[in-house]
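Researcher: I'm comparing several assemblies side by side, and this is the next one on my list. It has 985 residues spread over two chains. Same procedure as the others: predict the full complex and return the structure.
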Amino acid sequence: MGKVGKQGEKTKKSGGLTRLAAEVFDKDRCSVCGACVGRCPYIVYSEGRVILQDRCTLDEGRCYDFCPMAGAKGNFEGPLGTVKQVLIARSTRSDVRKKAQYGGVVSTLVALALREGLVKEAILTSGHPEDPPYGVRVRTKAAVLDSAGSRFAAAGTVAALNEALAEPGSFPLALVGLPCQVKAAAAMRASKTRDVPFRPKRIKLLIGLFCTWALEYRSLSRYLRYMLFGERAFHYDIPPPPASVFKVFTGDGIKAFPLDEIEPMRLNACRFCDDMTSTRADVSVGSVEGLDGWNTVLIRTAEGNRLVEMAAEKKLIKIDRLPQSDLEHLKEAADLKKQRGLSAWEEKD
Amino acid sequence: MDDMAGDHPGAEVLLQGNEAMARGALEAGVAWASGYPGNPSSEIIETLARAASEKRLYVEWSVNEKVALEAAAAASFAGMRALATMKQNGVNVCLDALTSLALSGIKGGLVLIAADDPSSISSGNEEDSRFAAALAHLPLLEPATPQEAKDMVRFAFDLSERIGNICLVRSVSRLSHTRANVILGELPGGRGRPRFDTSRPFITLPAVPHHQVMYDKLDQAEAEFEESPFNHYEGPPKPDLMIAACGPSYLYAREAVEMLGLEDRTGILKLGTTYPLPQKFVAEHLAKAASVLVAEEIDPVLERSLKVLAAETGDRIGAKRFYGKRSGHVSPTGESGPGLVARALARIVGREFEPGDPDYRRRAAQVVDELVPPREFGFCPGCPHRASYWAIKQVLASDDRQGFVVGDVGCYTMGIWPTGFNQVKMAHAMGSGVGMSSGFGKLDAMGFAQPVISVVGDSTFFHAAIPALINATYNQAGFLLVVLDNAATAMTGFQPHPGTGVSVTGERLSRISIERICDAMGLEVTVCDPYDIESTTAVLRDRLRRLDTVRVIIMRRPCALVQGRADGFDYRMHVDENLCRGEECGCDRYCNRVFRCPGLVWDASSNRARIDEVICVGCGVCETVCPAGAIVKETI
């Protein structure tokens, strides 16, 4: 484990799979982002888990370098990170909004980036709610909409990014991911070490999602199998506070389960996470407290800004201002997560 | 025609110990020979099989040792001479039949050759089968040389017929597999036809009087042993020390005495008929010395018999001091040898002695180190078991229920080692894995949720797994049975079995289908080719999902050595040096460090993997293992 610096920052040492296992897997701290999957034969993603298949003996490896749970933590200023502009937005298209979780901004931005050729391929998370979620590579708006909506379960999405990065040719890529996934992809993009045969410079757009925690797929699926008496689920939702329920859409109507019952199924890794809003993304998107059908949008980089502006110009999204009180709430929530995450790191192993 | 089977009485031929025993059976006019393969016994049946048509005898590899003995007993009941052969584990398998037959008695000479494996060179245990003689009240012979092995087997048939009971002959690996000149005896002429005399049944009951008859038969054998040429004394008339030796330990004792130059002080009591001991003969010679070193292999069986005899005759022969396994002068485990006997002898006479030249041993180790490539105990290149365990490993590793593999007996027992990725967590007797899985499969009611994979070979399936499988099925145990069907009894030398469609004498027989046996139990069976790792993994993953019943996967692919002898393989393999990542991140020598096929070697000079073309057979499996696509298969 890296030492805690003065600003609550940990210095990242390099390591290999042995170190990764000791720091992350053995401590049940894997966030199942998928950054280490597909880079070597030792690590695989299966049914909502990242698994060490065999023992690698190397002292240094990219599995460790890109792991968001190994080494450095809390390397950003303020609970929301760098933010150029904060706004709320919603898609103007009913086909998008029908499929999207909240305002449909993520689907809109990805589809637009594909259409305009800013990227040629996007990495999203897909999978029927009852099946293990996984990363997918999409190139069309239709495929984007097929993957719309949150999975709520950790999905190893970055594995699909690795697959795309290893392919020959030069196609720019986008990734839509949770904070840990965005952090891993951002680390790849920024890395100066040799990463053959991967081509991380292809990562052109990172759209981050807000996340308080992700669920562990198998626990959730066991729970729902038991609670739904065999009824099939086709969609999940966690409405913004203060609802405090986990909604499951089934053929037999919507069932609501208290969030208290769901929360124990969250990944242990999420306890250590200090990033609620995907601070490493180009643009981050989440729900709006108390305002259904809208998204909060945090524009962080010039690329992010350009894309959002383009979507607004083309009238694909409608934009509004986030009330100052809601921004304060968002900051409070993000700060709470950051403080909780950082203090979890200070706990004795 | 083998030298072994030639009709040249008085001719001296070079024979392996097992061939010599086969010859002894031929000289005795054996009509029937059955056994189950297992080191070091296998060549006896194989040798007889080669002579079967010429000598008009019936030879079979039976489905297991119990059936081998029972079938041989039938020939004996019909008045024919019959032989059953097996390794030490087989004696355990047939023990119930053996003790019952001993009670009923037999008619035609019936000999059981048990070949023990000191040092467990090719066994899952190290066991002394001689205890069966005392347990079943049967006479026991222990040959020291191939010549004696032949002569004893021949004599055993005569003795068996005279006392009307089975006679045991115990061999050990060293005797079974050594070669020596053997002087042949006469082969008999014609023999009668088998016929069962319905007026003379063979029944264990009434057990108590029959039990007494067993003792009477042993007395009769002991009386014969008093005059037996298989026992003798050599050495000074009044030695300081007597070495009592049986089996090859007799030769070790002779060498040991010579090495230490103790011929004037040491006598050797060579015993070939070790149960029952000929009391008068032994007592007469034990009386010569006050100290006795017992040289025998594995457990102190002769040592105990001699101590009992010394206690019973102590008033006449005087008190004895015994040296042996109980005193710690020789080890009750591991194979013996001249050096070990000499060391014990030296310790008794208070001399310094180290067997062999320590400098020679050091130099030999050095040469071996330099010239012999380091290879672990492992599956052959192209072995389908490696591919099967690879698929099992991948699937179990990605399953969070902590599933495990219950092993059984065969080449695939090596799944306990890195060659099988240490997947096998249990290995006992033939068929035991399926029995244990039947038990694990019922623990769910107590909250046990770990998936169990029971692996069993094709020959072991027929040998002992079927009753266990019926038990599991009937009692609704849940586990995954993986039959590793490599179309041979591979570990013991490719002997045919009921699934192969051929007999030991080369006849074409109808195959018995494993899947149809499973089908008859109502079990769902999937057959897959372990070389196709991807589909094998998918089938495994799917079948492991729900184990509310026994599910069966047959991983079918002939043993690589069998394939090599038949049609060969489809591919020539090579490594593309430009794609191979070697020790870099993303590989770390995955193919030869983790997959570990000996056909994949590490070329330290180029830091790349390489195919060892001499031993690679071209199965193509490693192509799917390489993360960089650097292992290329070309169809030939």
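Model: For your comparison table: Chain A has three domains: 17-75, 85-214+268-340, 217-265.
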